[in-house]
Amino acid sequence: MLRFGLCCLFKDHAVSFRTTTVKALVPLPRNEQLLKLSAISLHNVQNLLLALKTVQCLGIGAFRIMSPLFPRMTHPEAGYSLEQLPDGKTINASLKECKDFAFVHQIRLSFHPDQFVVLSSPNPRVVANSIMELQYQAALAEAVGADVINIHAGGAYGDKTSALNRFAAVFAELPEAVRNRLTLENDDVSYTPEDLLPFCEQQRIPLVYDVHHHRCNPDSLSIEEATERACLTWTSVGREQYCHLSSPRNGWDSGTIKSHADFIDRNDFPDCWLGRNMTVDIEAKAKELAVVKVMEDVEALNYRLRVQ
DNA sequence: GCATGTCAAGTTGTG
DNA sequence: CACAACTTGACATGC
User: Fold this and answer.
1) Is A116 part of a structural domain of the chain?
2) Strand C and chain A: which residues 5-34 have CB closer than 7 Å?
């Protein structure tokens, strides 16, 4: 069965996530910082549960959790632990509720740390910060039962092989909670599926195949070949494949193919994905509306196949 | 109230 | 060399 995933936010449903900035926190005395962070974190975890319930009502099978669910948690100055927050106990209880709900309803959960997490960087400070952030996301993933923390390979620095070697050295030393969740995704400027597949196969890191990035940044592999080989990086470790799908904002002949459209053009849905066992995250600005539309389109495509 | 500029962090490619 | 694009709002500030 194909299952479809929503990324982080909703368009029409009343689910909201709050955040704050270091700039706003730093002038406050510590106890007021913690009060503010506590209120935001509590709000966010309660809305995460609401998000999961909404997703379940819509028949959506996966949800990507916003990285700053607990904003600034790993920041050197403003950082904190849940135990330090006045509502820490309630927050932990709510996390458990999210985990139970996702398990009962089989909603697959994932994280996607943003571009600042770069394990291949030649700069040790960047790598150290990245590891901190991954540890935070792994603790969160553990608490809610998420099986995927997906990142990009990072910069190429003019030499992808050396960059991937640096990545491998860091990967080997990561805590188990990070290592067994970490996945790599082909990106739209540097690393193609062809660059990453041998590395992923060798390191036993699952490859999240982003077909939109592959179309923006192609290699010698067809979509069918990339899908199949990426699939093996998941099934060989007993896991369900994960892919990403989006459509270009202004069509494929515009100069802005990398930016995401509101909805998925049904022609962008790869035929070879029909009937597969995998999760597909829908990266589209119309959020849950776009996921629901893809599910309807795929239903129609399946119907047409059955009739033929 | 409402409009507007800002927000921790990295890297690449464009103008 | 500066800035936008990745993702995207929500927040903080100032009128």
Assistant:
1) yes
2) 7-9, 16-21, 24
> Rounded CA gap, A207 and A209, in Å?
6
Neighbours of A54 (CB within 10 A): 19
Nearest nt by C1' to A132 Cα: B9
pLDDT single digits (tens) A71-123? 999 888 889 999 999 999 999 999 999 999 999 999 999 999 888 899 999 99
b/e for A176-208, b at 16 or more Cβ within 10 A? ebbbebbbbbbbbebbbbbbbbebbeebebbbb
As beta bridge partners, residue A208 has A185
- Considering the entire predicted model, what is its pTM? 0.95
Residue A274's CATH number: 3.20.20.150
pLDDT digits (tens, 9 = 90+) for A255-282: 677 778 889 999 999 999 999 999 999 9
Identify residue A10 by its one-letter amino acid code. Answer: F
Comparing A22-26, A133-137, A302-306, which segment has the lowest mean pLDDT? A302-306
Q: Are residues A260 and A199 in the same domain?
A: yes
Counted domains in chain A: 2
Domain interval for residue A116: 112-149+157-181
Q: How many residues can be counted in chain A?
A: 308
In DSSP terms, which residues pair with A4 in a beta bridge? A280
A208 and A298 together in one domain: yes
| Distance, CA of A257 to CA of A252 (rounded, Å) | 6
What six digits make up the tokens of A169? 């050295």
Residues A233, A292, single domain; the answer is: yes
The continuous run of DSSP H or E covering A229 comes out as helix A223-235
A167 and A215 fall within a common domain: no
Would residue A47 count as lying in a domain? no
Q: Tell me which residue has tokens 């509720």.
A: A97
Q: Which bases along strand B come within 7 Å of a protein CB atom? A: 6-13, 15
Q: What percent of chain A has pLDDT over 70?
A: 99
Look at residue A261 and tell me if it is in a domain: yes
